[in-house]
Design brief:
Number of helices: 1
Strand order of the largest sheet: 1-3-4-5-6-7-8-9-10-11-12
Radius of gyration: 23 Å
Distance between the termini: 82 Å
CATH topology of the largest domain: Porin
Strand content: over 45%
Helix content: 10-25%
Largest sheet: 11 strands, mixed, barrel
Number of domains: 2
């Protein structure tokens, strides 16, 4: 058999195999949660008084490494500052989440939440802060073409440390664990391990960038790039800059 004949035979033999493998991976990629992603967040707390703040938070979460949206969100509420070491917040949130991990699917499911939290903290040293957050969420999912409407109750516990490095720079290391009750069953929901660099421009504005390892049930996990900006507004005028 001549060499050219062998090449032609190999091409004819391999072509359907390559097509099947490509199709398999395409279907798998669409069916499975992406291993990467980016979460862009913006916070704009409005200081009403020394004790009260209006919480505002918006987020855009990508589908894998693309710029396509996996989820949009808006969270709002009222925060009450008990003292410098503890505060409480309660409010509502709106989430819009793509119903599959395929870019060709343009259906987004709607979710409404009530949420409540208490956030105590303690200063361990002049430059080291220990932060905690305990949050509950009552989640209401509307029906989509893939799922019927359902409700869930989620409990979230976050603990972390913020170490001031030098000047306006700080480093945050935190972990958040979540359990959820759905259809009367309590199950592991997710765990987030976070490391962030924080640059505080002044008392009104700061930026954060970092990495999150996000663990889901059934040994699924993601590597998330985090980008966050926060701008505080005061009803009684500009705050004193530092």
């Amino acid at each position: 058999m001549q060499l050219s004949s062998v090449k032609i035979w190999l091409l004819k033999f391999l072509k359907p195999i390559v097509c099947i493998v490509f199709l398999f991976f395409s279907v798998t990629a669409n069916a499975q949660r992406p291993s990467t992603g980016m979460w862009l967040s913006g916070f704009m707390p409005v200081k009403i008084s020394a004790k009260l703040q209006w919480h505002n938070e918006a987020g855009y979460r990508t589908l894998g490494s693309s710029s396509s949206a996996l989820q949009y969100l808006y969270r709002t509420g009222i925060k009450y500052v008990v003292n410098e070491n503890i505060n409480t917040t309660a409010g509502v949130a709106f989430f819009f989440t793509r119903t599959s991990f395929s870019k060709s699917n343009n259906e987004f499911g709607r979710e409404f939440r009530f949420w409540e939290e208490i956030a105590p903290q303690a200063r361990l040293t002049a430059k080291l802060l220990w932060q905690n957050r305990f949050r509950t969420e009552q989640r209401f999912f509307e029906a989509t073409s893939r799922k019927a409407a359902y409700t869930a109750f989620r409990f979230r516990m976050k603990t972390g440390f913020v170490q001031q490095l030098y000047g306006k720079w700080s480093l945050q290391l935190a972990d958040e664990y979540m359990q959820q009750i759905t259809k009367g069953k309590l199950n592991f929901d997710q765990n987030r391990l976070i490391i962030n660099g924080i640059y505080k421009c002044n008392n009104e504005f700061q930026m954060m960038g970092g990495y999150m390892w996000l663990a889901w049930p059934a040994s699924s996990n993601q590597h998330i790039l985090l980008v966050t900006v926060q701008k505080q507004i005061a009803f009684n005028g500009r705050q004193k800059r530092k």
